[in-house]
Amino acid sequence: MSQSRLEPQPAEVQSYDERVCSRCMGHRHLCGINPCPLLMRAKTLVDLESAVKDLSLYGSSPPGVFVGEHGYPKVLLGPLVPPVLGPETAIMERPDLWLNKTMDEIISMRFSLVRTKRTVPVDAAIDPPRFLQETQTLALSEEPADSEALLLKRPTFASVLSDTTLPVGPSAPIEVFNLDDNLTVPRAIDRVTSDTDVKARTGILELYDDGIRQEHVTRLFSVGLLGAGRTRRIVPTKWSITAIDDIVGKKLHKEVLRLPWMNDYEVFVDQALGNTVIILFMQGVWQFEALESWLSGPNPGVISDHEWFKGRKDYARSVAGAYYATRLPVLEHLLEKRRQASTIVFLETDPTKWVPLGVWRFRSIARRALAGEGKRFSTLSEATEEVGSRLHSPLQNWLDASRVYENYNTQSTLTDFM
Q1: Is 339 inside a domain boundary?
Q2: Which among 323, 243, 317 has a CA at the least distance from the CA of 291?
Q3: Which of 8, 37, 103, 395 has the fewest C-beta atoms lying within 10 Å of its C-beta?
Q4: pTM for the whole structure
Q5: Nearest to 293 by CA among 345, 369, 248, 219
Q6: 46 belongs to a structural domain
Q7: Is the pLDDT of residue 2 over 80?
Q8: Is it the case that residue 398 has pLDDT exceeding 60?
Q9: pLDDT of 138 higher than 70
Q10: Is residue 234 part of a domain?
Q11: What is the rounded radius of gyration, in angstroms, for the C-alpha atoms of the chain?
């Protein structure tokens, strides 16, 4: 690399397109700026030199585990361990408690977690070696677990951000991992994970019905603790997150289809961490659509994924994980209200306040919005007017991109002939 690329660049060059960051994750140099602004920000928030002085790492894992996807069916897997001891590390793995925190507070917490890693074949879950057994034991725990890791190298920053998973800190290959024996494992988790005759999908739904936090279920699924004995596999964390949203969502979808229609039109709104989530419920049969737009100019584009009454079988490639992360809270809400509805979710992102933190925030913002009162309207035009008043970009851009809105306004119903 030439010396000129290492020198300070003009201010106009230093501004970067945050839309690129969600694809770059801090290591692909898609914006052309070197060093990466997000990576430099990460390094300023974590004092690695004083936190990890040698190759021995002692800390209380929140508990946390990360499984990468690169190299599948052999993946990099390992516990997340901060150089801190104590129960306060639990907050590092509780995104449901982060919406009122600042972006820097969240990044600082997550980047304090050292991602240890070792290459493991995904089918090792059938007969796990000792390192994987220790990692699985950590995944079972509900409370922070004191642990000791002997690293092969000092931790370094590489890929730090993701559009799906929680941020992870510096990484290092691990040689030895040992856990404190005093772990807290909920009875429901012990029952499901020790039953090697239960399929993964059944186990996931049982844990959901027992009130086990979604992050915990994802962790169990990732490290290969769910499923019938010979079918157990390690699953990359990114895939696990969307899989849990989808598996639980499909179960709730079947139940919602049996419910009566909603009587009115309702709008729920909330915002946090650079994202606004607006949920529009309309009278009628189940349909669902997630619309997403970046405030990248005076007339930003809108991307969309949708499903009709019977749901969808293929992956929502445009909105991706955010589709499933918002669909689940919507289904939970309708089931609680004992109603069925056509639903459109508007996801608007302000790139000046945004850093890729994972799809958890769409799920958490949607849940917090639906826990509020919302606003009720007697006509669709009144409801969409309310939606438009909460958006920063033109409402018509969103409606023009919406398949569900178009279908809703053109499809005939029995009441049209009465």
Answers
A1: yes
A2: 323
A3: 8
A4: 0.87
A5: 345
A6: no
A7: no
A8: yes
A9: yes
A10: yes
A11: 23
